[in-house]
Amino acid sequence: MWLAYFDENKYDPAAGRDCFWIGGLLLSEASAAALEKRLRAIQTDFFGTSLLAPSSELHGKELFHGKGNCKGRGLDERMAVFERVADCVVELKLAMQFVCINVPRHRQKYKHPVDEYPLGLMLALERYDEFLGAQNASGLVFCDHEADEISRAMADFSTFKQTGSTRYWKGRSLERIHDTIYFTPSHHSRFMQAADLLVYLAARFDLVKAEPERWHEARAWSAWQKIKASAAIQHWP
């Protein structure tokens, strides 16, 4: 049984982000224990506790900008968290999967474009189902709790399972993904927090082709390059 943990980074043209990202980690039962041990150590070293709570949550945006529960913490120790998580997922040889939707291109190409969250989630589920097929395995999927998206996502998933196919002519049955989509607050799950950090780095640095001049951005960019070299990324359209 495999476990998928997906988080998203929203399309925000006001902040200069033209893409919607969704993705994260695909974990085997064998890799889950090792990952949890290392993430707990990272959390404890940074926050002084391994308690799963909002006050000790590893969150990409807050880590990078020094906001929220990372306010007052130094740049060096904050960038070190990104580096340690990157080292962790690469050294453990974890499967990582991402979907990147260029939202302006998507809306321009299709007469009736599907909203980016349901489209991105559908594509992520398709790629996960393909991955499970290659492993001759089955799996469960966990997503970050998005209150305004849960009802539609659950309805879409159950429809795909009932009809035997996702949307579009290359749709997949998703039969290898069992039960439902489990939505959970990220502060309840270290694996979801790791997915958040990965997707944050992807959204911020994937289109940055050269190493940034600012030293802290260069360190986070390098962490993403290491992750990217081991990940599968689908670009849409």
Overall pLDDT level: 96
Quick one: CATH class? Alpha Beta
- Multimerization status: single chain
Shape: globular
CATH architecture: 2-Layer Sandwich
CATH superfamily: Ribonuclease H-like superfamily/Ribonuclease H
Structural domains: how many: 1
Q: Helix content range of the residues, please?
A: 40-55%
Main sheet properties: 6 strands, mixed
SS content category: alpha/beta
N-to-C order of helices and strands: EEHHHEHHEHEHHE
- Kindly report how far apart the N and C termini lie: 31 Å
Strands, total number: 6
- The CATH topology assignment is Nucleotidyltransferase, domain 5
Briefly summarize what is shown.
This protein has one domain (2-236): Nucleotidyltransferase, domain 5, CATH 3.30.420.10. The protein is built from eight helices and six strands. The protein has helices spanning 29-47, 60-65, 75-91, 103-109, 116-135, 150-163, 190-205, 215-228; strands at residues 2-9, 19-28, 95-102, 139-144, 177-184, 231-236.
